[in-house]
Amino acid sequence: MAEHETHRYDVIVIGAGGAGLRAAIEAKARGLSTALVCKSLLGKAHTVMAEGGVAAAMGNVYPEDNWQVHFRDTMRGGKYLNSWRMAQLHAQEAPDRVYELEAWGALFDRTSDGRITQRDFGGHRYARLAHVGDRTGLELIRTLQQKAVSSDIDVFMECKILRLLHDDSGTVSGAVGYWRPSGEAVVFEAKAVVLATGSIGRCYTYTSNSWESTGDGHAMALWAGADVIEMECVQFHPTGMVWPLSVRGLLVTEGVRGDGGALKNSEGRRFMFDYIPEMFREETADTEEEADAWYEDHANNRRTPDLLPRDEVARAINSEVKAGRGSPHGGVFLDIASRRSPEYIRRRLPSMYHQFMELAGVDITAEAMEVGPTCHYMMGGVRVDPESQAATVPGLFAAGEVAGGMHGANRLGGNSLSDLLVFGRRAGAGASDFAEGRDQPPSADPSQVDAVLADALAPFGRDGGENPYDIHHDLQSTMQSLVGIIRTGSELEEALDKLGELRERTAKMSVAGGRAYNPAWNLATDLPSMLTVSTAITQGALARKESRGGHTRDDFPAPDPELGKLNFVQRQTSERGDGAPIHIGPEPLSEMPAELRELLEEGH
Amino acid sequence: MTDAMPEPTPAGAWTATTTGAEVAALDDAGAGPRTFEPGPAEEEEPTVTLRVWRGDPSGGDLVDYTLPSEEGEVVLDVVHRIQATLAPDLACRWNCKAGKCGSCSSEINGKPSLMCMTRVDELPEGPITVTPMRTFPILRDLVTDVSFNYEVARRVPAFAPPPAAPGDYRMQQVDVERGQEFRKCIECFMCQDVCHVIRDHEDNKRQYAGPRFFIRYAELEMHPLDTNDRRELLRQRMGLGLCNITKCCTEVCPEHIKITDNAIIPLKERVVDASYDPVAWLGRKILRRHKRSPEEAAAHPR
After folding, report:
1. What residue in A sits closest to B173 (Cα-Cα)?
2. Could you say which of A124, A218, A248, A257 is catalytic?
3. Which CATH number does B47-145 carry?
4. Residue A1: pLDDT band by 50, 70, 90 thresholds?
């Protein structure tokens, strides 16, 4: 067997963002030996970039708020493609998860009577997001990180996992990867594995995601034979920076609009009033006066259309730019400068102020920002049992962005951080239960380990092959231009062909230098994940011949009620592993209980 | 062609330096009007030179990389372009590229800086020197072994609030804001890098927590709900007294946290109060009590 070190744990958690940390804390608290494995240093995961807040119906600002309203908002935002049970558990448990963070040291902003205060966000009926200015993700990850460290969880930093291992019965029994600093191989033997690997954004050119978001967990689950669902549902956040080019895609928090910012086109018109869809017409203001009054008085005014769900806003911006009413650098204007005082803006949105001042030389207290859609979030992911987060392959669990179902076709802002906490904890518990019920300590199969390492190291053995950076660049261009925010059948077919060509090119890529901290090699080992995930996204987008949430088809512009009752499920059936064909087929959503269905139908 | 976001159209030379592949990709992605305004043909194409330290624990050297310059770039953009073209194995850490994660710390022209927040056009003309943080051992190129910081983090006695039912804690905004300033820390470790107590005296790492962790202790000390007392720990084990308040840490903090004024000096005052207050000293003598050990003082379980 190839040289490697071996570690044995009850539970290993892959990924140390919010979901991974919360899962590891839970498993450790239940007395299981637990390892947390992450590609970067601890505390650097993409969760730190979450800005606006964590959605939880605590009712601290609007006592009328409760889990039922949160559930309804989540389902409507997701265009009813959500797993209703996940949406229910999420809405019910989010408040306790937030309070738990407070007990672990998080310092949320307060109401005047000393409670955790909550802010407005798109698609949420009431001010619901607990927050710390506009750096809520940092607060969340730091709190969890400090809790994990004080719980003595073993952390394997800068360790890339390549593939899951399984026993003879197909039960997941560990993982194989390498240390990035040394390039040396490492094997984990575990009774249960939790995937918490986050997003897929690096498949696109313009994304708010960090380099880590290469869809490793989505791909590894597929390669292990697990189901993934709703891969066509990618969220393009409506407001990313568009200039300078080097920061294009960088997120501008929805909190800007929650705190009073308005979208305007080049004519100065607040165009969102022209894009209110039928589904939201009753609850959305149709005059600027009402929209502006809503910020102070939710009871007697309807909400501003600037805070429609993200898919609606992203499509509206797209249409304005296409119609020639965009800003000089190809976005639209987001104006808070003319609407709120400089002091207010600096207090409420300190990192946005900082970000625009330092990177674009724009003072957002004095001038409008230029913004446009950016690839932001993956709704689709590993199909899981809502209670335990168990995947369809035994021994495997998934939580956070890598899991599918919770957000349906479109995620509401703020529901991601609460998702991490609620389902991170549930995955940690589910994995613990599974591990406790598993007798035999698994032992890694040498032939599996050797095959994975041989694949990973192959680029070192080739001379003069393709540069992984070039392949990645072309992959991103393909996905950006052909499988982006607006899709069409012929382009999706073309994308599948191009992805096939890219896969052939990866077989010929070469890497120079050694294994120690070699970013070209690191990228080469991330490419298989990105190719698999891109293929699944494209297949899903082809199959869903309708427009729903984050998935918009130019050739099928309307929602199809029949397709709204289906998930597109993808899995590798005959053979497994990287490059094997992925089967896709529709499966009906589970029937929602009548009492929950009534919540959706209640008029507001 | 379906994405309606056209390419940005900055007036300047970036288009002149865009590669053929990039232009093709842009054509694919953009629907709106585009204007290309290359600089005057007579002038030389503007370039940027990065002088990057390349090497490993056994040694290394500065290597110059020159590329066409592009508008609005930060140093990390140039490093990424070097990786994609001239030196694919150039090692550097980064994650968010937005000044929020603190991964890409290095020394730019000798000053600890985040590569993702340092604009090329704001640096003096001429080659830009990029070297790894000096206080930490080299792993490769710009990547250092920062595990010292994670070891110190493990020694911090955890937050310990009084028990309460979920939602029952009450804190005023003005009280949480003191700690919130310190919790802005993105753990870039540049304050640790620049602090001469460890930068110039490797031995001190055994007995000195450093500015990043002094703000962590300050945050816990000032937390309205915390019940632990870490003052003796700070005095005896964390080397708070070694800091002679030169404020270098405050100067390099990318989050503009007033590390010295708002954290270290107040901590020093609290430690002095606990340790050297004559009334408390007299009280201990009369009652025959000894000062609690650092471990006892921070008695709550980690």
Report:
1. A110
2. A257
3. 3.10.20.30
4. low
